[in-house]
Amino acid sequence: MTIMAPLVISLREGIEVALIIAVMMSYLRKSGQMSLSRYVMTGTAMAIVTSVGIALLMAAVWGEFEGPGLDAFEGIVIVAAAVLLTTMILWMWKMGPRIASDIEASISRRTGVRGGIGLVLLSFTLILREGTELVLFSMALAVQDAAQTYIGVTLGLLLALVAGVGIYQGSLRISLRSFFRWTSVFLVLFAAGMVAYGIQELQDGGLLLIGPLQVWDINPLVFPDGSYPLLHENGLIGGLAKALFGYDGNPSALMVAGYISYLFVVSTYYIVNRRRVNGRADSSERQVTPVSTAE
Fold first, then answer.
1. CA–CA separation, 117 and 104 (whole Å)
2. Do residues 23 and 106 lie in contact, with contact meaning Cβ atoms separated by under 8 Å?
3. How many CB atoms lie within 10 A of CB 184?
4. Model confidence at 267: pLDDT above 70
5. Range of 75's domain?
6. Which tens digits make up the pLDDT trace of 200-209?
7. What are the Cα distances from residue 62, in Å, to 9, 21, 66, 139?
């Protein structure tokens, strides 16, 4: 386990939160309603406190399990985190170009109807979603290595805070399209590994015992001193691949099927969605006809 996976996930979640706040603040500034900004910050603070409360509640529930029950609980958390991570990626692929306009439209509606309370609820809802996702991802990663997870999450959030301030003030200019594209590729591979690892935890808990529990074993032999070779799943390179992309030297048949099926379904969705978006763009271009003027 390395800090890379929790760092990337928390950085992306943090930048999404920063963008939500930046869009809301920018809209209020452009519309001359900066006096309402305190309601955005109130909703943000409430969402952060609620997210911490959810983390503490889940940690308390986690402590109630032991033995096979703990393995099953961890497996459920990991698979649920993988599903949530996937929905976040797919939502960003579909809604990414319209996020800013959708948020601004929501602000316009809520300031007109409920004023400050509407802004509190809007910022609370949007940011709580991101906070809940980060809590679940952190728990899923902490199953493998709690210390590395918390270090990575902390670093990622600090970087996101710096980036968010820079984006809002205009001092930092980055290609958000490229950022989300490449982090999405990483997260899809990471989520596939989470699916496989979650299945392994469930099988360790006595669930989903379907098919052979080991289809191959390519782990190199452990050295006489007890250390692991580089390509062993507990070695330097193998351990990194296991933490980031779900590499497993001796997987079960269901783990392999889950990994491959996940990548197939997500890749198919991406291709279909891209074709649909490109088709709408081509249709819009065809509807624009040149206007000729008679001399």
1. 16
2. no
3. 19
4. yes
5. 4-177
6. 999 999 999 9
7. 22, 32, 9, 10
